[in-house]
Amino acid sequence: MGGFGGMNINQLMKEAKKMQADLEKSQEELGSKEFNATAGGGAIEVTVSGDKKLKNIPVNKRRFQKVKCSSDYYYIYDRPYLIKDTITNKRFLVIVRNIGKASDFDSQYKTMKYVSYTFTFIIAFIGFLLIAIISSRLTIPMKKVKDTADKIGTDGDLAKRIEYTTPFKELDAMIQANNRMMDRLEDLFQQQQQFTSDVAHELRTPSAIVSAECQYLKKYGKNIDDYTESLTVIERQNTKTTEIISQLLQLSRLEQGRIKDDFEYSNFKTLIESVCDMEPLQFKKQITIYSNLDDISIYMNVGLMAIAVKNIINNAMKYSKNKSSIKLKLWKEKDYVFFEVKDYGCGMSEETKKHIYDRFYRADKSRNTEGFGLGLSLVHKIIELHRGTIRVQSELGVGSIFTLSLPSDKSSRQLN
User: Fold this and answer.
1) Which residues, other chains included, contact 267 with Cβ-Cβ below 8 Å and sequence gap of 6+?
2) Rounded to 10 degrees, what is the CA torsion of 105, 107, 108, 112?
3) Sign of torsion, CA 386 389 393 394?
4) Closest alpha carbon to 304 in 248, 244, 261
């Protein structure tokens, strides 16, 4: 015969008697004599003294029942167990009936209810307190951001930055991003102001010369030679002004993406050689060109690339001494073509290298050097349009090396 977890009937009866003893012990501890427990016949019966009604209540498996005995109410819960006798293989149904006094349950329920209400209130209060603390720690730096932004807007102080450290990484990241944005905005405004100043300066000089020549002719012009000389000066200044405006328009179109994608496969070596042949500084300063150019064709906008090559070679000659030399090298590595221009001129400082692609920037602050400071800006934009890069190495008093890196074909370029 079996029992719980493989126990036989005898073992089950022993367990039942043990449960009876435990229940009677509980009665003594509770000071109550109302409950009696008996075991026998494979089942445990629990009744209330002085009232047989609880014993006669039918079994209602796994459902609570509320019954009245004498003047009190009781809760009854029947739990069935199926056991098997390992010898006879017979199955026995054992039902354990749990009985509790309703007043005890109600008292415990009320106690639990009040305790739960109290804990709920305490937890809610702590929660609201934490929310208030966290909110204040969030809103203070956010208010700081707002006040700083207002100050920048009203005072126009773009140098103002948010200096605030918070325990929240996300908020710190937002403040740092805002400061980086302000750095960029300040830089853009400074460039705009510098650009306006540079344009005014570059255009004022030829305009002043033209005006002076006109006044000279009105006052002193007597013969054809005077007029011819003045008109030559005026024409030269007009050409200079036209070139400045043309380069500015070219830059503007490149920045706005309004240049036509007139690309084709063309021989890069031939283009470089033709630019060198037409460079006037080569003959004016008696500069020797040493070239090592591989015969390479690339997919490019020939007109724009000619401007870029002309400017970078002109720049090397401009800052080289008379009767010096420059070196040109063209080669290919994998899917990229490299064009290098090396000069032995004055070189550049680290600070100068940071600004060489800015419009109208010239290392020679006296502006005695020829040009307008737009050449390398154009080169940079043209190389970007060709999905290439430009790198510069320079040392003061030693010289500079400009290296263009360009995709060799259309597929690696992925032009829009």
Assistant:
1) 295, 296, 297
2) 130
3) positive
4) 261
If pLDDT is split at 50, 70 and 90, which confidence band does 37 have? very low
Three-state DSSP at 92 gives strand
Tens digits of residue pLDDT in 220-256? 777 888 788 888 888 877 877 777 777 677 767 766 6
Q: 3-state class of 75 per DSSP?
A: strand
What does DSSP assign to residue 285? T
pTM (two decimals): 0.50
Residue 42: closest CA among 88, 10, 79: 10
DSSP 61: B
**Which residues lie across from 327 on neighbouring strands?**
290, 342
Report the C-alpha dihedral over residues 137, 142, 144, 150, rounded to 10 degrees: -160
DSSP notation for 325-379: EEEEEEEEETTEEEEEEEE-SS---HHHHHHTTSTT--S-TT--SSS-S-HHHHH
CB 63 within 8 A of CB 82: no
**Cβ-defined contacts of 51-60 (< 8 Å, 24+):** 54/99, 59/95, 59/97
Residue 86, φ and ψ in degrees, nearest 5 = -75, -15
Q: Burial, 339: exposed, middle or buried (Cβ in 10 Å; 0-12, 13-18, 19+)?
A: buried
Dihedral over Cα of 97, 101, 104, 106: its sign: positive
Q: Which amino acid is at 86?
A: T
CA distance 209 to 215: 10
**Mean pLDDT over the full length of the chain:** 75
Single out the residue of 408, 398, 353, 346 nearest to residue 380, CA to CA: 353
Find residue 65's DSSP bridge partners: 76
Cα dihedral angle (345, 346, 351, 352), rounded to 10 degrees? Answer: -60
d(CA 241, CA 274): 26
- The DSSP bridge pattern shows strands 389-395 and 64-69 to be unpaired
Tokens of 394: 């320079």
